[in-house]
């Protein structure tokens, strides 16, 4: 049926396939068709012939032999005009012979989502599902030889359908009624595992490795696992509070510090190694503390103040680090003035004291009223409490004074004053003086201490509501009208009788009314309504003030497990409630330091008593029963055929008497058998015609009548004589996760989950953090059937309701008073002190006037988003541009909401340009100002992309689910401006913070920070951005800022600073090196030449000793004569000259002989060689001595005392020498 119809048809098919495959590179799924029922009453084919056999000639019905029915399915592209021939592009499928003329699949009809292999055809595909399709379903008769198998002779019926279907679990049921047969079936398209989307082309495979840490939701979207973030969840979320500029992490919860930083959050710099008394702001600094100096801050600059070495009143002066001098008073000496010479010379005793010298110095004998080493201390005469009868003692110089009560007098208030002298009694017989008082004897009708009160008690009209007053002795009586009672007729007739209060509340009568004292769980006029405790929570909308003030902070905490709430139902006026940290199955036991332990009820264990002890271990149920764990108990779910507490009793299926018409029941395992009588047939002996009916075979089995018995052909997965026993239970694959118990049979199951898990397969962890159990901004960490509160700074306890007292460590010095606050403290400093710990000595200064108020010297106060301080009459404030403050508009004519009030003198007005971040925001406005806000002259704006040396951008990405409703961008910006770190950063320069919605991310807010007046210092704006990020990363009580999940910082990359010193030094050093190299080369070459000359001299000397002396012929006689005279003058001029006689007499004789041979007469010259210390080379010529001089420096000759034997150059002109020949001596 599916053969090709031509080349054009094949080309169109190829084009469709290419279109499908190019749409997506990866996709997978399958098309599923499930038959429900088939009806072919006559057992005919589509052409009218019988499937098998012949027609009956009488009723024209086909013979009893039924059709052997099977189905074929063709799935192809959507066709407007459907052709039943051609290729099935999307796929084909078929079944085996699944029935006769008429049959049905009951399980598929009753529960279409159950797995049933009978009548099911699955066509897988590996392309993007195109949604539109054409489906051809055909019923065929298996050829039994009665018909030819060619063409469509064996076709029973054909159904053609063209529709659209999206992937999903739900099935579409289709009823087809044809001319020959009708059948009902259902279809659906499902994506394979890890494929999602309307076309099954979205691939999402969960992973937890180096390439990603995520799971997939039902739409195929990636969801990062806890502790990971990013597109592919490859970026670890560092430890909360970790400074991301100075710390990194490769796994969630880590905080690994970069070089130069330390601390759990990498926010503490490392000082320079060896730094003793110094601190750092950046790594490797050593900024000395007060009074310390030196490279490592190890030198004490105030040795005098630290050690106070000078004694006996000596004045210490710091001279150098760790050095000092003592200026001693008269009479003392020594390095520390410890030596007493004449101690009393300087009159050290004050106030008239007498000085006496002693070996250790002096002693002062003080007059009365003075004490101390130098009589400088005034004696406190009031220390002995001399004033009696409650008098107040005032210490004076050498005495005291008592301020007595009016009835006492005297120096020590011991004399009783006669009060009757002042006649205090008005209407009395007499006045009697008493000790410490007096007594008046009053006339009749008068009373009081002074007899000034009339005893006519009715004079003041005490009776109310028209009551008549009657005077009695020392009292009165009211005669009340009808309907009133009480001492003064103030109570209406008892409105509490009968008691109108419900739920056991006590009734109290009031004037014209009554009051019901309700218990803590009820409210209303008559205590008839169940109290909603959440209505008492004043938190309404998100605002700057509300996010920082948590009402539960005001609840007094008794211990780690109990808190006290005000109530009218107890005598003490409080109601103690449990923090409920141990859950419903445990009792909290308080431990020191905010800790606790849980005492569990029987059947439970774990830190929070959250784990139910498994009573199904070891398994108590028998015969395949399933054990369900309870609380200190268990329950067995028995399989079919068994019952009892432990599934150890066989169920008697005959107890219901299923056999009819006298049949005898035989009990079997999970079944019964009826032995029928009198030709009755059927499973229950109910029919005389057939053994089969619709209820004979269970679970879709097909019944066949075999005369005296029947046989059931069961579907896949079922066995038994009536198909009543599942072959493989659906629980065999352990579908229940996380310890859940599977209960089921056949193709259905149910998971009974352990506490803390939920879902069809117990795969989802139940959220124990809903509703939020943590107070005061604590973060709830959900566990399996437990939770843990990670408290914000300043709070502790299992549910973060304990406010930590920061004053316990006594941080305030110099007698100041510590006031505990949330995660901080406030020191109320004495006069002359200031600073966070009152550690700064500011002395006495002028007060400041600011905004019409006077502030003392050294005091601090808040001015909108800035902090101000008074310093000797000058007000110094931080420079944060606060902008117009957001506020809540009036509601129904009432005043502005107290959670966001405006400063005094301003009112909340509407503003049409507020940007809403989490709707609704219509209730927000801004506080009016008398003067228009100053214009902003800056290019540093959000979403502008502008960056410079003083501009930085911060992107805050929020979790929308955690952002409170009614939050505006202006609220977020106000939160940033009011951060304490912003005030610190704006101490010296103006800080401008602007915010706007991000153009690229709807869940983000762009923040621009402009650090104006920074003089081009690029580092300051980077430090400011880092400080803001660090403040946001730490846990706080701001509801809005707790929703921040990611922070991005952008600053301008700082180029390296141009420093001319480094290149200049490099040039200098380079020149020096070149010069050194040139000198070394020159010196090396010089030394080499000297060594060559010395070597040549030595060779020449040897040659002169061995070669006969030859006198040169007369050549250049003029020059030689001049040279000889010049050289001899040089030798004769010094008073002392030397002649080298080192050669010996033999050498001299040899030279004379040689000269004689040359024809020279030297009568008066004794030939000796003049030594020039290696500076000459002697060359013997024929007829004379020629001395040649080299360019090397000449060493001075070694001269000896004058000798008459030295005839060199003596009387040279008178020598008998030839005119043509002269001797040369150099």
From TrEMBL:
GO terms for biological process: cell development; central nervous system development; exocrine pancreas development; hepaticobiliary system development; Notch signaling pathway; thyroid gland development. Residues 189-233 form the DSL domain. Putative Notch ligand involved in the mediation of Notch signaling. Coiled coil: none annotated. The chain crosses the membrane at residues 1061-1083. Residues 300-338, 340-376, 378-414, 416-452, 454-490, 492-528, 572-610, 612-648, 650-686, 688-724, 727-763, 765-801, 803-839 form the EGF-like domain. It is a single-pass type I membrane protein. It comes from Oncorhynchus mykiss (Rainbow trout). PROSITE patterns: ASX_HYDROXYL, DSL, EGF_1, EGF_2, EGF_3, EGF_CA. SMART domains: DSL, EGF, EGF_CA, VWC_out. Disulfide bonds join 191-200, 204-216, 224-233, 328-337, 366-375, 404-413, 442-451, 480-489, 518-527, 600-609, 638-647, 676-685, 714-723, 753-762, 791-800, 829-838. The lineage of its organism: Eukaryota, Metazoa, Chordata, Craniata, Vertebrata. Residues 1142-1153 have a biased composition (Acidic residues). Residues 1107-1159 are annotated as: Disordered. Keywords: Calcium, Developmental protein, Disulfide bond, EGF-like domain, Glycoprotein, Membrane, Notch signaling pathway, Repeat, Signal, Transmembrane, Transmembrane helix. Residues 1-26 form the signal peptide. Pfam families: DSL, EGF, EGF_DL_JAG, EGF_TEN, hEGF, JAG1, MNNL. InterPro entries: DSL (IPR001774), EGF (IPR000742), EGF-like_Ca-bd_dom (IPR001881), EGF-like_CS (IPR013032), EGF-type_Asp/Asn_hydroxyl_site (IPR000152), EGF_Ca-bd_CS (IPR018097), JAG1_1/2_dom (IPR056986), Jagged/Serrate (IPR026219). Residues 1115-1130 have a biased composition (Basic and acidic residues). This is Delta-like protein. One of its GO terms (cellular component) is membrane. GO terms for molecular function: calcium ion binding; Notch binding. Its main location: membrane. It is found in: Membrane.
